[in-house]
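Structure tokens please, single chain.
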Amino acid sequence: MNKDITILAIESSCDDTSVAVLRDKTVLSNVIASQKMHEEYGGVVPELASRAHMQNIVPVVHTALKRANVSLNELSAIAYTRGPGLLGSLLVGTSFAKSLAISLDIPLIDVNHLQGHVMATFLTENTPKFPFLCLLVSGGNSQIVKVTDYNCYEILGQTIDDAAGEAFDKCAKMMQLPYPGGAVIDKLAQQGDPHRFTFAKPHLAGYDYSFSGLKTSFLYFLRDNLKVNPNFIEENKVDLCASLQTTIIDILMAKLLKAATDFHIHEIAIGGGVSANSQLRQTMLQYGEKYHWNVHIPPFEYTTDNAAMIAISAYYKYLNRDFSSIDLPPFAKMTGEA
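Here you go.
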């Protein structure tokens, strides 16, 4: 009888310190320590983030093992996020993972952060069949990824400037909404008219995205209306949020629909922090019904940065004996095929 594969995974790409324990494909624990101090700065401060990771990593590992009821000598491998992300934050997770793997004399597995978001859909019972398309949307990335195997990815399109999550957060900042602005916009948008205001949409060939023009359009729209009415934002906040959110989702879905049609793929998934957006999740289901897609949406706990998605990615790499070198530098990008 084959021995269970038990993996401890570490995710430290940005401002959340997360550790998960996975036994085969079952998540035994998924612990996340968030850093609230960035809210007062309106964004993540890299130096503060890396310092907080150093404070959090040991207690979070301890808690994850305790909740999973797993001891260190039961682990089959240590997995970690190699990148992309903030270099200082990545260094903390990378260094800890390498040290732990060396001390336990077990394999080390590096995981691309973006692949982790794609693989989050395999943490559910309703997993996609190959090939499938994943709309990967987060604060730093907007991509359409074609997945033909657990470890085979092809980027069909991606943003040429800003990401959808960045557009949410920066437009929220223009309206002086709290950070992180994407979640605030989602909540306010539920009370507003999504067709009240119209903003610029890019006209790009292929499957690439662009959100810089939308941000500029939104900025100038606010500026012009504030000249006439200094209370314009406050008086129209819910409609502004609803219209902005609908515009961003329309841009995302138009390219996804084009890719699904061109490649004749009906297995469609979403991943990344923006996949927690309630309207995007609802729109995915509506498109699924209209275009006969099999839609795969991860639970909310696996949409943000979390170690469970790193663990499930590492599980399939473990099956391929795809282990990492201790000398591997702590950075990686998901470009083209991975």
